[in-house]
Design a protein that fits this description.
By secondary structure, the chain is an alpha/beta fold. Helices cover about 25% and strands about 20% of the residues. It is built from 15 helices and 24 strands. Strands 1, 2, 10, 11, 12, 13 and 24 form a seven-stranded mixed β-sheet that branches. Strands 7, 16, 17, 18, 19, 22 and 23 form a seven-stranded antiparallel β-sheet that branches. Strand 5 (about 130), helix 6 (about 145-150) and strand 6 form a beta-alpha-beta unit. The longest helix has 24 residues, at about 535-560. It is globular and about 75 Å long. The two termini are about 30 Å apart. Keywords: FAD, Flavoprotein. It holds the Pfam family GMC_oxred_N. Its cofactor is FAD. This is Choline dehydrogenase.
Length: about 550
């Protein structure tokens, strides 16, 4: 920690923070400090795709959060992984590359009053960093694909690698065919703006290795820049906010605990919170920015009453239906013996393929939970395996899991500090299944699962519903059982949402600036006003790409004036 004065301070070296660091430090005149509470991404299981099993729940790479007991989950508390290492959640997540649906971003534009968040406006910011496998060879991509993903012939290749998965499963192929027989079309691209269909997910991998944002945006460029500094093992305890002569307030720096002492770092320009949808609202509240009643109750002086900080939490809850099968290979049986495990390890060592290269979910599908839905509102993550809960051993019988989530839940939760101690975990209360609409979608989606599994393509494997159990048929039973078998897909968003000036719960303006505090932005999934209709890593990168341009413009303004 040789310097303490910078132009920009970025808190969190995860998905957004890594990209921001790369873009902002590209200007050699601009000094950038990146602060990460975790350590370097030198743990080998980060880079082997199946290693998420050893990273989630591991204090070396995970904050080890849990939710409050949830009424909608019949009193259960869920493990709530958040990445704590370089690359953040991109180092421990499911590696699925998914933009969402065009309507998501059109809704952001409506909620913020800013047309720059519309789908056609954000598409170039997805493309800016994307490096897609289909553009590796001329002729592999048609004109429409090139419009959506870029064209290497014009030099639009980015840092963020997107590849096909390196394995297939007979059982998953059969599920995909069954989904088509149930009326869900086949697709080979979930990222064109309408992701309806069934197909294998594309993943953020490179030659069989996980591709995290530390590899993509930090290691090849930032580490060699004299104007870039990285602090790891350093947790920000508080934002420094100072009154200005005109009566306004400005964030001028941060206090950082490095494990031995408290260090102050100052920002001549901006402080950027990219700590994620849990840690960013926590840090704002610890700094006196948030709901006044909560802050006073926790013994914190109120600097700025901003009621939306920590509110509006949205997440994707997946309902994990399990079906026993016969006459087909699943990971339950393949990994059930020492010989099977040795074969898996050998295949990965020699070819970088097989089960060790696989994402947590390989096959995906988007469809409607009922004919009344105007657009695809549920997503499937299908796996050739089953277990009682994440982190538990695989079942000893052959089975597959068809996990289905409500893409646009109406339930809203909170993230709130428990005390003034910056090292204490916040209270995370997603409030799952707390609305009649979400309960109905849960029941309907289980019926869609049953309709798919009943199709001829799966009949030869004699699937038997093990969870929740075919005996349960009513809406009330299915919603209650969903609460027993559901878990998070780790997609929290919205806790520092952006919005228009008339929204009293909007924490940020449309350019991600904290309302009422100059020199402070939040650039992470917490800024999203509504949850995307798909996995959230790619939208977070797009959001950071968009913000990097605004931050750079603001930094150049005084020099260029």
């Amino acid at each position: 920690m040789s310097h303490t004065l910078f132009d920009t301070i970025i808190i969190g070296a995860g998905t957004a923070g890594a990209l921001l660091s790369n873009r902002l430090s590209a200007d050699a005149r601009h000094r950038v400090l990146l602060i990460e509470a975790g350590h370097k991404d030198d743990y080998h299981w980060i880079h082997i795709p199946v290693g998420y099993l050893y990273c989630i729940g591991n204090p070396r790479t995970d904050w080890l959060y849990s939710t409050e007991p949830e009424a909608g989950l019949n009193g259960r508390s869920l493990r709530y992984p958040r990445g704590k290492t370089l690359g953040g959640c991109s180092s421990i997540n499911g590696m699925i590359y998914m933009r969402g649906q065009a309507r998501d971003y059109d809704q952001w534009a409506a909620l913020t009053g800013d047309a720059r968040w519309r789908w056609d406006a954000v598409l170039p910011y997805f493309r800016r960093h994307e490096d897609h496998w289909r553009l590796d060879r001329p002729g592999d991509a048609d004109e429409n694909f090139q419009r959506l993903h870029g064209n290497k012939a014009t030099g639009s290749s980015g840092e963020w690698r997107v590849e096909r998965q390196r394995l297939r499963w007979e059982l998953l192929d059969a599920f995909a065919l069954a989904a088509q027989q149930a009326g869900i079309p086949a697709t080979d691209d979930f990222n064109g703006g309408d992701n309806e269909g069934v197909g294998y997910f594309e993943v953020n991998q490179k030659s069989g290795w996980r591709w995290n944002t530390a590899k993509a945006f930090l290691r090849p460029t930032c580490y060699g820049r004299a104007n870039f500094e990285l602090w790891t093992g350093a947790q920000v305890a508080r934002l420094i906010v100072q009154p200005q002569p005109d009566g306004s307030q400005r964030c001028t720096g941060v206090q950082v605990w490095d494990g031995r002492e408290m260090v102050t770092a100052q920002a001549a320009g901006e402080v950027i919170l990219s700590a994620g949808a849990v840690n960013s609202p926590q840090l704002l509240q610890l700094s006196g920015i948030g709901p006044a009643a909560l802050l006073r109750a926790r013994g914190i002086d109120v600097l700025h009453d901003l009621p939306g900080v920590g509110a509006n939490l949205q997440d994707h809850l997946q309902i994990r239906a399990v079906f026993k099968v016969g006459g087909v290979s699943t990971l339950n049986t393949l990994a059930g013996s020492l010989w099977g495990k040795a074969r898996i390890a050998l295949e990965y060592a020699v070819r970088r393929s097989g089960p060790m290269s696989m994402a947590p979910s390989q096959l995906g599908a988007f469809t409607r939970s009922s004919p009344q839905q105007p657009h695809p509102n549920i997503e499937y993550h299908v796996q050739p395996l089953s277990l009682d809960a994440f982190g538990e051993p695989l079942h000893r019988f052959p089975a597959f899991t068809a996990s289905v989530c409500n893409l646009n839940p109406t339930s809203r939760g909170t993230v709130q500090i428990r005390s003034a101690d910056f090292q204490a975990a916040p209270a995370i209360a997603p409030n799952y299944l707390s609305t009649p609409e979400d309960c109905q979608v849960a029941a309907d989606s289980l019926r869609v699962t049953r309709r798919i599994v009943a199709q001829p393509a799966l009949a030869r494997y004699q699937p038997q519903e093990w969870r929740p159990g075919a005996q349960f048929q009513s809406d009330a039973d299915l919603a209650r059982l969903a609460g027993d078998i559901a878990s998070t897909i780790f997609h929290p968003v919205g806790t520092t949402k952006m919005g228009h000036a008339g929204d009293p719960m909007a924490v940020l303006d449309a350019q991600l600036r904290v309302r009422g505090i100059a020199g402070l932005r939040v650039v992470d999934a917490g800024a999203m006003p509504s949850i995307p209709s798909g996995n959230t890593n790619a939208p977070t990168l797009m959001l950071a790409e968009r913000a990097a341009e605004w931050i750079s413009e603001a930094a150049r303004a005084p020099r260029d004036a």
